[in-house]
Amino acid sequence: xxxxxxxxxxxxxxxxxxxxxxxxxxxxxxxxxxxxxxxxxxxxxxxxxxxxxxxxxxxxxxxxxxxxxxxxxxxxxxxxxxxxxxxxxxxxxxxxxxxxxxxxxxxxxxxxxxxxxxxxxxxxxxxxxxxxxxxxxxxxxxxxxxxxxxxxxxxxxxxxxxxxxxxxxxxxxxxxxxxxxxxxxxxxxxxxxxxxxxxxxxxxxxxxxxxxxxxxxxxxxxxxxxxxxxxxxxxxxxxxxxxxxxxxxxxxxxxxxxxxxxxxxxxxxxxxxxxxxxxxxxxxxxxxxxxxxxxxxxxxxxxxxxxxxxxxxxxxxxxxxxxxxxxxxxxxxxxxxxxxxxxxxxxxxxxxxxxxxxxxxxxxxxxxxxxxxxxxxxxxxxxxxxxxxxx
Length: 391
Known about the structure:
By secondary structure, the chain is of the alpha+beta class. It has a single domain (5-385), classed as Beta-lactamase, CATH 3.40.710. The protein has 11 helices and 15 strands. It has helices at residues 36-49, 55-63, 114-126, 152-156, 166-172, 181-190, 206-220, 224-233, 286-298, 304-310, 373-385; strands at 5-6, 13-14, 74-80, 83-90, 92-94, 99-100, 107-108, 242-243, 258-261, 264-267, 282-284, 329-333, 336-345, 348-355, 360-366. It has a 6-stranded antiparallel β-sheet, sandwiched between helices. It has a 3-stranded antiparallel β-sheet with strand order 7-11-8. It has a two-stranded antiparallel ribbon with strand order 1-2. A hairpin with a 4-residue loop joins strand 14 and strand 15. Helix 3 packs across helix 8 (224-233) and helix 6 packs across helix 7. The longest helix is centred in the middle third of the chain and has 15 residues, at 206-220. It is globular, with a radius of gyration of 20 Å. The N and C termini lie far apart (41 Å).
């Protein structure tokens, strides 16, 4: 089975890449090993242009190896001081039909979807409809066998200790040919043992965010997809963004995901776990992610105090601090506060890095699995920030 959604934390992200571990952080594995040859071309390109030309020309040169009219590619956006200063689509959204990638091409962003799940939790918390420290079993009695000490906060911070179920669910496939979050809950109600006591340590968990989606449904009294649409997508004008919680959900201008095959690429097949939500399944575009970034900077969805509280590191059982908050990995880079999250799932990848205090963001979306977006994001950051971290 594919890696868990992604990501950097573990996230390999439903495979989603990363290397994290499953699906989202999913593993922060060796972040995309397949692209070694292509990455060497990117590295050479970077060395050639690092000292010459203006920023746009240098970034064009860095990305040149990804330009193609015969292969899938990457969508790139750089936001500085609230304005998009660079946006480009490289390669094809659909190789078979020759459709190029553009600013309204929709990509499955895999584990990067977690930022929207976490934002819903913040919205409900601000409205006093959710307490992060409420036991999960009060919302989901089927999980009572994991005890009363596992809280909503543990789900949000990948410290719940819930077991993985991807291999088992992928084999089962579900009665409809795809697996829903309720199918996953039914599995956990009867199978799997806790990996560790809640709060003891960090272990990237797509499972935790899938259970979190069900908790939010219970707290708000409406389906998770409706919550996302009504409380986040519509207020921000994210008109091209969809939650693909069923295989038949139409996603306008959706790119196909591809994996390397021989000298070319093959479309990634559908998978029984494609439609698990909370941990992934959001499909969105550069334009809509620009709207989201502006909303975060302007505190449009929640108050600054609510966001700051959610972005505090979790203290673990041994007294150390986790490097993950609500939907974001927490880092320091170039002496600046940095938030990031990777995602990867069956030919799709996403990587967003934000320097909130400097109002600088890089967004990378891909429909190919062989490019290391984390490395590419860092190189873009260095182009703009320079060796001394001056954005």
